[in-house]
Every structure is written in C-alpha cells, then in structure tokens.
Amino acid sequence: MIVRSLDEIVGTDRDVRAPTFHSRRFLLRKDGMGFSLHDTVLHAGTETYIWYANHLEAVYCIEGEAEIELVDTGETFSIGPGTMYALDGHEKHFLRAKTDFRALCVFNPALTGKEVHDEQGTYPLIPD
Ligand code: 9YT
C-alpha cells in the first residue's frame, strides 16, 4: 500500500514546474498502478495549449474556474469544482484558467515524472 501527502511531494522531483502550472505527481509509472495521479494547479490568467497525443487524461476540478476550447470544433466548456472532463479522443485544446485552477489529473499510460510539454503541448512516451 502507498500513502503519500502533498507535504511530502512539494519541493521534490515529483513537484514539476511549468510556465503556466505546477503538477504534484502522487503516482508515477514506477509506482506500478498503471496510471499516474497528479494534483495540478494552473495559474490564474494563463492559457495552455495541450495535445496529449500519447496519453489519455481525466481531470477532476477541485477548486477554481477554467475554460476549455477544443481546437478542431471550436466548442468551449466551463469547468469548475465538481466537474470532470476526459480527453478520450486526444483532443487538442486550449486550457484557460480564470482563477487558480486546481484539479486531480489521471494519465494513462502513467507518466514517469520527467515529462514536460513540448512545443506541441504533448508529453512524450518514455520507453521503459
Ligand atoms: C489540467 C491539465 O491538463 N493541466 C496540464 C498539466 C497536466 N495535467 C499535469 O502534468 O499534471
């Protein structure tokens, strides 16, 4: 069994900083669960372009407000506390945080912990 607190993760190599968000990675590939689990905070007023070409991601909002715009259709969705979205089609999207936006994020396959977005907003698949 694995038990971890946010306090144990902040400031370690599981606490990954990017220009528009920070991602505290509770579970990674090496933990053997088959998915990774992150507590992520997008910074208020930021826009992030994302295309998870190699991963499926589900996002459950805990705090804050954000808008998602799907690139291919132009559809927009407002996301707030208690709402989940799942990128089951590897959708390219813009994520705009109206306030600090905190969410639990689950990735399949699991991230290894080293990934940061590339210029296409993608996390690479890192081989075993
Ligand atoms: C909500 C979202 O997709 N944010 C981008 C960061 C990613 N979820 C991560 O690495 O935690």
Which labels suit this protein?
single chain, about 130 residues, mainly beta, six-stranded antiparallel beta sheet, four-stranded antiparallel beta sheet, about 5% helix, about 45% strand, binds (2~{S})-4-acetamido-2-azanyl-butanoic acid
Describe the structure.
The protein has one helix at 6-9; strands at residues 15-17, 21-27, 36-42, 47-50, 56-63, 66-70, 76-79, 84-87, 93-97, 101-108. The model has no long low-confidence stretch (mean pLDDT 95). The protein starts with 5 loop residues before the first helix and ends in a 20-residue tail after the last strand. Helices cover 3% and strands 43% of the residues. The chain has 128 residues and is mainly beta. The strands form two sheets. Strands 1-2-3-10-5-8 form a six-stranded antiparallel beta sheet, with no helix packed on it. It is built from one helix and ten strands, in the order H-E-E-E-E-E-E-E-E-E-E. It is globular. Bound molecules: (2~{S})-4-acetamido-2-azanyl-butanoic acid. Residues 21, 23, 38, 40, 42, 50, 57, 59, 95, 103, 105 line the site of (2~{S})-4-acetamido-2-azanyl-butanoic acid (9YT).
In short:
This protein has 128 residues and is mostly beta strands. It contains 1 helix and 10 strands, in the order H-E-E-E-E-E-E-E-E-E-E. The structure holds (2~{S})-4-acetamido-2-azanyl-butanoic acid (9YT).
